[in-house]
Every structure is written in structure tokens, then in C-alpha cells.
Amino acid sequence: MIRIGLRDAKSHMRRFVMSIIAIALGVAFVVGSFCFGEMLDSQIDSMMASNSDADVYVSSSVVKTDDDGEPSGTADDGKVQYEDIDPDVAGTLEEIDGVSSAKVFYNYMGAVLVKKDGTAVNGGGAPTLLLGIDAQQPWRAAKLTDGHWPENDREIALHAGAADQSGLKVGDTATLVLPDGPEQFKVVGTFDTDAAQMGASLVAISPALARQLAVETNHTDKVGTIGVYGDEHTPLDAKAQEALAGKIRAALGSTEQVKVETGEQARADDAKSTKEQLGFIQPLIMVFAVIALFVGSFIIANTFTMIVRDSMRGYALLRSVGASPAQVFLTVVVQAVLLGVVGSVIGVLLGWGLLELIAQGMNQMGYALSGSAAPSTMDVVWGVVIGIAVSVLGASIPARTAATAPPIQAMNETVNPEKPVRTRGAIGIAMMVFGALAWWLAYGLATGDGKPTPWDAVNGMDSVIPMALGAVCLVIGVIVAGPALVGPAGKILGWVPDHVFPVTGRLASRNLARAKRRTANTAAALFVGIAIVSCLGVIAGSVKASLNDVVDTGMDADYAVRSASMTTALQDKAVKEMEQVKGIEASATLRQMYGVTVGGKDVPAAITQPALLTTIAPPQVQDGNAAKALEDGQLVVGQSLADKYGWKLGQRLELKATTTDIDEAATAKAQEAYQRQVEEQAGKLQAEARQLALAGDADGARSKVAQAQQVVEDAQHVDPQSLVKTKEVTRSEQVTVGAIVEDYLYVDCVLVNQQLANKVSDTSWQMLDQLYIKAAPGTDLETLRKDLEKIAKPYYTIAVMDKDEFKSSMASMVDQVLAIIYALLALSIVIAIFGIVNTLALNVSERTKEIGLLRAVGTSNGQVRGMLAIESVILSVYGTVLGIVVGTFAGVVLCAVYADQGISKIAVPWGQLLLFLALAILVGLVASVSPARRAIKEPVLDAVRSE
Description:
Blueprint: H1 2-11, H2 13-51, E1 56-60, H3 89-94, E2 101-103, E3 107-114, E4 128-132, E5 143-147, E6 155-159, H4 160-166, E7 173-178, E8 181-192, E9 201-205, H5 207-218, E10 225-229, H6 238-252, E11 258-262, H7 263-277, H8 281-320, H9 325-364, H10 377-404, H11 407-411, H12 422-447, H13 456-459, H14 464-493, H15 495-500, H16 502-514, H17 516-554, E12 559-563, H18 572-579, E13 584-593, E14 596-598, E15 605-607, H19 610-616, E16 622-624, H20 626-631, E17 635-638, H21 639-645, E18 652-662, H22 664-694, H23 698-716, E19 726-741, E20 750-752, H24 754-760, E21 766-775, H25 781-792, E22 798-801, H26 803-846, H27 848-856, H28 861-897, H29 910-927, H30 929-937, H31 940-944
Helix pairs in contact: 1-9, 2-7, 2-8, 2-9, 2-10, 2-26, 8-9, 8-10, 8-17, 8-26, 9-10, 12-14, 12-28, 14-16, 14-17, 14-28, 16-28, 17-26, 17-28, 22-23, 26-28, 26-30, 28-29, 28-30
């Protein structure tokens, strides 16, 4: 029976082609998902091994707490955060036996490297990272390839990736955009690391400058960790690391509130955390893999239905000569296994190839990956197993039909009528109604007064629950009820063809109704992809419409000025110059405040001027006078925050900020201690020189004197910043809530004026984010723009945008994400198109004699083509309409459920949905070409003859 199955598979190999493609695409997604995850893990592991190269790491074990003593450092991933550690601990660590050095590495991520052609490197992508490295404090994992490390604050060395991206080389003058604006540096060296840096531009600067920038940014001289090295050049193995960590723990004792980890432990923890943050990527790809395989299973089922129908007489003969139903079932399953193996192998190779292309594309875009894209043995095994499993599942129902059909019935060449679909239709429609009611409830809970039903228990539930339940019921309900909907849908969608093409149109709509299950299964494959695309289209359209509405109705500014880089702020100097440009009626800045709590709550706080609330973007719905409240030094609170925390107009709240200031007393003490240390060391060397001179060792005495002079000279060149000590200072003010604003622009933040902000927060804790400018009446906007851009040009990263550009910049992220998802979903829709071709081919196969008779009585080849084209178009439009209706409904409800996330306006992209319908008609026409060619290629006499 296995040989019979293999022989049948060989004879039907042409009909397997589309199923093989479907399996290959689905398996390619699966293998690609696994491979991409492994490549990303490999990249992260190699980066951690290269970038975090210390043998032991010492950090604070003190958990960050809030005013009530509760842990306040819990990040989004659930990890507890710890206080920073004093860098002076490094001196203590270096005195421990077995420690070669203990290093405090400072870095700064708010800079932008400028290319040789004057444009920014990675303006909106991976960051430019400045690292404090020099010959005295090298990075063990970095290897100089040319030149030398920086020797002063005006020299830099570039990582190989940064050099390639910028076009700079040793000897060139480079520009770095720093907090105070662009500054010039000389490139004195290039270096490389074993691992690619995923697009980040690494720049080595002097440790003194790195510390200065880090302290200004982080507002403290403390650091997260101190790296301890047992050997300056050779990494210790795991056993030696643990031994060194044990010595450090013993030396520090229990009184020190520190945590000591081996380098292996620290790297593993950091890698795990990074992988968890990027862990959404692999499941996302797997979702599309499941969709593709789900859609592909319909094609496989139709393919084997066709094969079983063609081979039914052969199976009947096998049953007649004694073959059992199980043996007949086995012959079909053997073909499915062969199909799965072939499709899976192609899918593995396709997934590997696609991932190599993705890796190459990311390298070209500046996001270099050094991890391997090759699939592992388990990736191949899983891909083949999944491909075979889907093939066997798809073939199981046709195989059961072949195995259980009575031999006499199987001998009959006519197609047996389908079983009634009324019961199935009733069940599916009931599920659809229940799903629609669940979505109505979710919509009511999200948009109504909170009481859409008479039952308090129902009204109190989270709207996400009925949303998810409704989605499951509606999708499954549509698939279950599909066969019962084919007849009515065929009549409705076939009305136009029936009247335009009376003969071929009527035949086409009736032909689809003769195989309701098959038609419904094919339409379901298309329905799933179109539903998801339509839902995402509504969400994306609503998000962009909401953003546009905020700008169009809530903002009267002619220009918005912001940094084109995600890692840099606007420079105060540039903003002050812009505000002095002739032709400006009003301007207002928006500064983000950090380390601030309001009423004991960690909420977004921003600094602005009354002009924002009177001229630039006056609020439409407010309780109190927001502009006057801001001018009087009161709080302007967003409505959502007021609702969340129960804040009322006139209520007194504590505005508190914990900042880091210079500790004058500690700094003076540190300077005195250093000076005393230098004097003692120089005095000791001079005393030794005198003793050597008295002993007659003139050369030794001169050597000691030279050493003493070197100690004094080194002290004169020490970085003063390294002796600056800081302390945490907490300031607070009791402030009145002067206004509560409902407009979306202000709904989730607290606004204060500059005077109030400066009472509790240092200016270094205030990041200048945006500048809004309104032109004076009669001002030429183009001239004003040119004047603003002239000021912005020397800063490289400052973008001047009009309203349309501002809206476009806010919506660009939505479009980028949507483009990726559409590209992934496109493959599932392509698979669904193959399903339409397969279904038409099966219909043609079953109606060979019928089509032959039509041609014999005078039906032209064009009419046969037209009939099949109309069938294909109706089938394609049917699946598309179902997807559009359900997907649009889902998008509207989702937008309502998540309205508090900023989706204030629901926008259905009708143009996009009409485009889907037009594409459905085109898909139907294209899908009908091959089956129609096969139908008219058969000679009439051969088609009508009895088999």
C-alpha cells in the first residue's frame, strides 16, 4: 500500500505544486522565526562577551525605594533596580590581592556623530555611544587597528563601524553634536571589536570628557557597576573569576552594601534581560507562521480532495480485492507525508535564504549583525515535523472519505451531493451573534457611561475580556457558518454578473453553490488575512487621524522645531537664537522634567510658558484658567491624571524632585586628601633620594628625584572633575492645582512654569524637547522658515517642520510598523490565492464532462473562460468582503477600547478597503487563467466520453 501511495503521489505531482508552495512558505516562516531568534541571541551573547569584558563586577545591593520605603525601581520587565555605587570603591578594590585593576567606565549616549559629508550618522536609528577610553584606561575587548587612543579632550578614536558609516579616517576632523552644540575633534585612531554593534556608532573619547558628559546627563558621579580585572590582557576562566569574586567578598566584608558577581554571571544576566526586551519579535513572526500554515491547510485539503476524487475508482478496486479502509487511508497519508517532506525541505532552504537576505539588508542599513543565520538541526527537524503534520492534517478528511466510501458508490463517476449545511450554519451564526454582542458590550464599556447593561457584575469587567471573546467567536463562527453563507452570498455577489452575462454569470454563481464546503474553506483562507489587514488599517488610520486632529484643531503653531535624533535634545543656544528671529508673534518651549513626583506619584511633568496655552495651543476643554494658573505658578493637570488619582481643582499637592548637586564640602575634602597624598608620595621619594645620595648611589638618587617630579607633574594634569563629589538633594514645594485640562495634548501630563520648576529641580534635569513658533500676521512663512533653518543648520540634528511635516513625523512610526506587518501578511494572502486556483482546478476536474457538453452545444472558449473568471471573482470577493466587514468591526471596537491611549478619533480607511475589493477582483481574474486554460485545452470528445 505504501508503494501504491508513492506511485499515486508521483502521478499527481503537478497537482501538488501549489500545496508544496503553501507548505514551503509556512515552514519558511517557522524556520525563519527560530533562526532569527537564534541569530539575535547569538548577536546579544557575542556583544555581551565583547562589551562587558570584566572578570568581576561590583555594584550596589541597595534597592531603590520610594518615600514609603517600598521598592520603586521595578522596571517594565519586573526586574528590581538598585542604587548606583560610589566610584571611590574602585580604589578599595585595587588594594585586594589578585586584583590587577578596577575600572569605572563612563559613557554618554546623547551625542550624534556627523559624517564627512555633513549629515548625521543614524539620525533616527541606532545611537552614537561615546566611551571613555585612553592608553591608561583601555577597553580590553577593543583592538586598535590604526593610530592611537585619545590623549586629550579634543581627540577621538572611531570603531570600525562608525568609521565606515561616517566616511572618516585617522587624521580627519570630526564633528560631534554634544549638549551645548557641535564641537570639533581630531580622529587619532580606529579600533574594532569581535562582535558587531548592531548599528551603534562607538566613539572613544578621553575618560575625563566621558565622565563630565555622564555626570551632566545622569546628574551623579555614581555608576551602576565597577569592572574588576584579574589580568589586564587575558580574561580569567569561570573558576578563576569565582575565586577572585570570593576574595573581593571576603575583603569588603558584610558591612559594605555591595553585590559581587563574576563576569560570566553579569553577562548572562544582561543578555537574558536584553533578550527578554526583544523577545516579542520571535512570537510575532510565529503568529504569521501559524496564519500561513492555517491558510495553507485549506489548500492541502482541496488538493487531496481533488486527488481522491480522481483516484476514487482505484480505491474502490482496492477495497473490492480486499484492502481494508485503514490501508486505503494509508495510501493517501503516504502522499501527504511525501508532500510535507518536499514542502518542508524547500521551506527550510527558503527560510534560511530569506534570513540571509534580511541580515544583508540590515547590514546595508547600518544595523550590522554578526550572528549566524544558518538553521540548526533542531530548526530543520521542527520545520519538517510541522510541515508533515500540517500536510497530514489537511489530507485527513479527504483520506477518510476515500477509506470509508462504499466500493459500489466509489465506482460511480458522478459527484455525490454535499451533506446539508443548515445545522452547521445555525451553529456558526449563533457564534457570530454572540461574538457581535460581546463586541457591542466591549464598545459600550469603553465609550458609554460604564453601564451598558442592567447587570453590575457585567458592567464592572474589563472591556478587553469581551473584546477577546468576541474576536474568537466571530472568527470561528464565520468559518463554521461559511458553507451556509455561500448560497446567499453567491446570489448577492452574482446579481451583477447574472444581469450583465446572463448565461455565464448564472452558471458561475450556481457552480459555486454546488460545492459549498470547498468554496467556504477557500474563502476562509482569504478571509483570515484580509480581516487582520483591515483591522490594522482601521487602527492605523485612527491613530494617524487622532494625531492629525490634535495638530489641526489644537495647535496654532506654524512651525515645530525638534531634534531629528531620538537621543539628543534641542540646544538652548539654538532655541534662543530662533526665538529672536524677526516675524514671530509667539513661541513656547516644552521641557521634560526628570526625577519629579507630583502628589507622591511619578507622573510626566513638563515646563512651558503661558503662550503655549493662550496662543500656540489653547485648550478647548478646561476647568479653571490654564494660562493664568501657569503664570501664577500653579499646576496645570491633565484630565486623565486627575481622574486616576482623584485630584481636584484647588487641591494642594507636593511637587518634589530629588536631584544631584555638587557637594562643596566633600569636594574640598577630596581635593585636600589628594593634595596630601601627592605631597606624601613626593616627600617619600625625595627622602629615599637623600638616603641614596648619602650612601653614594648618585644614579639611584637621581632616579628617585625624577620619580618625585613625575608624581607632582602628574598631579598637575589630573582631571579636576575626578575629584568633584556630589550629593542627592531633595526639594519640594506645596502647589495648588490651578486648572484641569481635558485636551489630548495635555491629558496625561502636569505642566509647570520655569520659575516653579527651578525651585525644585536643577536645569540639568530639564531636557529641552520641542519649540513651537507662531508667525506674526503678514509674515512670509517661507522666509521665516529659511531664517529658522539657517540657525538650525550648524547643529545638524535640529529639524524645522511645518504642520504637515510635523503630523507626518508623528505618523511615520505607525506607517513603518504597518508596512512590516502588511509585508508578512501578504504571504498568507498569496497562499490564499493559490487556494482559489486550486479550488477552480478541482471544480474544472469534477465538471470535465459538463464543460465538454457545454462546448459541444456551442459554448465558446471565451464563455468558458468568462464563467470560470466570474466564479473566481465571486469567490475572491466573498472572502474579501467577509474579511473587510469583520476586520473593520474589530478595528473600530479596538480603537474604542484603547481610546485612553490616545485614539481619540475613529477613522475607517474607505479608500484602502475599496482597494482591497479591487485587488480581490484582480486576484480572481488572475487565478482563473490556469484552470480556464486547462478546461478548454481538453478535446471535446475526450471530455464527454464515458470513462
